[in-house]
Amino acid sequence: MQINLISVGNRMPGWVLAGYDEYAKRLPRECELVLKEIAPGKRTKNSDVARIVRDEGERMIAAIPSGAHIVTLDIPGKPWTTPELAEAMSRWLAGGQSVALLVGGPEGLAVAARQKAHESWSLSKLTFPHPLVRIIVAEQLYRAWSLLNNHPYHR
Fold first, then answer.
1. C-alpha distances in Å from residue 62, one per residue of 11, 38, 55, 79, 116
2. What does the pLDDT read at residue 151?
3. Is the overall model pTM greater than 0.90, yes or no?
4. Cβ atoms of 1 and 65 closer than 8 Å
5. Percent of the chain clearing pLDDT 90 (strictly above)
6. Got the DSSP string for the chain?
7. Parallel, antiparallel, or unpaired: how do β-strands 32-38 and 119-122 relate?
8. By C-alpha distance, which of 109, 142, 134, 141 is closest to 36?
9. Which of 39, 63, 38, 51 lies closest to 116, judged by CA?
10. Most buried pick, 21, 45, 46, 115, via CB within 10 A?
11. pLDDT reading at 155 higher than 70
C-alpha cells in the first residue's frame, strides 16, 4: 500500500522537509508515504479566492492514484485517537489499495475534493499551519504503524 499525502504548498523551509522526511523514511515499504505537492494558486488582494481553491482542488484530484481510498484532512472531519488511526491504517492495509490523504491550502479544500472523499480526518479543532500538518501526519502515521506492529516507539 502506498499512502499519498497530497498537499497544497511547495517550497517548504528546511525544518519542514527534515521533520517530514524523518518520519516518512521510518515507515516500511508496506505503507510507504509519498508526498505530492500541489502548487498553490497566486493570492493577491484582488484574487478570486473561490476560483483559486477550485483550481487547487482540480490539481489535487488529478494527483490521486486511480482507485485510491480518499481521506480528507479537514477540521469538520472525525477526530481520531491514535488507536483509531491505527484501526484505519489496518483497514487501509487490508483493502490493498493506495490511500490519498488530501490537505488543502489556506482556505481549505475544494468542494470537489471533499465530495470525492471516502472519509474525513480532523487532526484537531485548532487550525495548524499547512507545513506543520505534513510533519504531524507523517509522525502520526508512523505512530499508528508502530502500534499495529508492537514497535516500542508508541510507548
1. 20, 10, 11, 27, 12
2. 87
3. yes
4. no
5. 85
6. -EEEEEEE--S--HHHHHHHHHHHTTS-GGGEEEEEEEPPPP--TT--HHHHHHHHHHHHHHHSPTTPEEEEEEEEEEEPPHHHHHHHHHHHHHHTS-EEEEE-BTTB--HHHHHH-SEEEES-SSPPPHHHHHHHHHHHHHHHHHHHTT-GGG-
7. unpaired
8. 134
9. 63
10. 21
11. no
Residue 47 clears pLDDT 80, i.e. is over it: yes
- Short-list 84, 82, 92, 72, CA closest to 31: 92
Pick from 83, 73, 92, 70: nearest CA to 144: 83
Q: Positive or negative, the Cα torsion across 136, 10, 72, 125?
A: positive
Q: Which residue pairs, CB below 8 angstroms and at least 24 apart, start in 18-25?
A: 19/134, 19/135, 19/138, 19/139, 20/134, 20/135, 20/138, 22/138, 23/135, 23/138, 23/139, 23/141, 23/142, 24/138
